[in-house]
Write a structure and sequence with these properties.
disordered N terminus, mainly alpha
Length: 197
């Protein structure tokens, strides 16, 4: 039996809360149809219930970015491993390859290009040198400095790995319209410029 309007069981605030949850549930269902992550939507809904005083909408962005980054990194590093490389080793070889002939950079420059400490870079270079993919020599401009260069085998490995890496990235973007991809790239570039600028 339904309560009469105005009775204690039909409190206006309680009714508004019920109706609000109906809207939220509908939003979550629409989100599933739109390809949104229902796990993140559930977390948002729970926080909206527990902390209705807070606007938790940013979780929709950050939560999905976090989960997407983890899922994509798993897919991306598979290709590196197929070529016998870690993510860090791939980054070093790629930075050297991008430098162009004669495919060399100073260790400090490599650290800047790959955003790691010089100590971490030194360990990566040690492993790559041991594998015969890079060499180290004294700088012709500064005898105290060192230069890291690709070997012929290193160039072969990174060219093959990068070809497969790009093919893999195209695969991961399949299903998204080209216009959406361009818009996403533009939005991410704008946001990164704001945060990193």
């Amino acid at each position: 039996m339904s309560a009469k309007p105005g009775s204690p069981r039909d409190d206006p605030e309680e009714r508004a809360g019920r109706e609000g949850w109906a809207v939220r549930d509908d939003r979550a269902q629409r989100g599933d149809r739109d390809g949104r992550d229902d796990h993140v939507a559930r977390i948002q809904a729970e926080w909206e219930r527990e902390r209705p005083d807070l606007d938790v909408s940013p979780q929709g962005v950050f939560g999905r970015l976090h989960r997407l980054a983890a899922l994509l990194m798993d897919e991306i590093t598979v290709v590196y491993r197929e070529h016998g490389l870690t993510e860090g080793e791939f980054d070093v070889l790629a930075a050297l390859r991008r430098a162009g002939e004669p495919f060399e950079r100073a260790p400090g420059e490599l650290a800047q290009h790959t955003m790691v400490t010089t100590g971490a870079m030194s360990k990566r270079i040690d492993r790559l040198e041991g594998a015969g993919l890079v060499t180290r020599r004294a700088s012709s401009e500064d005898g105290r400095g060192r230069v890291v260069a690709l070997t012929a085998e290193g160039r072969r490995v990174i060219d093959a790995a990068f070809t497969d890496h790009i093919a893999n990235e195209h695969r991961l973007l399949e299903g998204m319209p080209a216009a959406d991809v361009r818009q996403l790239e533009s939005l991410l570039a704008k946001w990164l410029g704001h945060v990193d600028g």
